[in-house]
Design goal:
Elements: H1 7-12, H2 19-33, H3 38-48, H4 59-77, H5 81-100, H6 115-126, H7 140-143
Helix pairs in contact: 2-3, 3-4, 4-5, 4-6
Protein name: Immunity protein 49
InterPro entries: Imm49
Pfam families: Imm49
């Protein structure tokens, strides 16, 4: 249901978001709905998530947190295991750099797990791409679906 919400509705809500956000949403919608326009949206999301494109979030956040999962999805779509693992390693390294660069950030709960890279890594692993990056930022139990069956869902 979420994948069918029009992006125009997000724009109409009036919040200040960088343009890449709308394109990233369109990319994810195309991915989940198996639409033919996935490639177009994904390439545009990669371009618009470059740090110099940031207007609302700062360039540091854009480059270290927002761009990496988009690049990971790009590598996943190409079935490029080596490129994917390289992008995942970069994502985790940049996640750590971002959250440890300023003392106040180190105490933020968002710093504990690289959530967006973890989500894309879980998707890739579930579809046969080997994950070679090991780090506490990617909890093994989540990456290996060890929690499956633990909760009624």
């Amino acid at each position: 249901m979420l994948a069918r919400i029009p992006v125009s509705l997000l724009r109409d809500l009036g919040g200040a978001l960088d343009e890449y956000t709308y394109t990233w949403v369109e990319t994810l919608q195309s991915f989940w709905l198996h639409r033919d326009d996935l490639r177009t949206h994904l390439v545009r999301a990669v371009d618009l998530s470059a740090p110099e494109q940031a207007r609302v979030v700062d360039a540091e956040e854009m480059g270290n947190l927002r761009y990496p999962p988009i690049m990971m999805l790009y590598r996943y779509q190409r079935n490029d295991a080596a490129g994917f693992n390289g992008a995942l390693a970069d994502a985790v390294r940049w996640h750590k750099e971002y959250w440890t660069a300023v003392e106040d950030r180190t105490h933020n709960i968002l710093s504990v797990v690289a959530l967006a890279p973890l989500a894309i890594a879980c998707l890739a692993k579930a579809n046969g791409l080997p994950i070679e990056v090991e780090t506490d930022y990617l909890p093994e139990a989540l990456l290996d679906f060890a929690w499956r069956g633990e909760f009624d869902a």
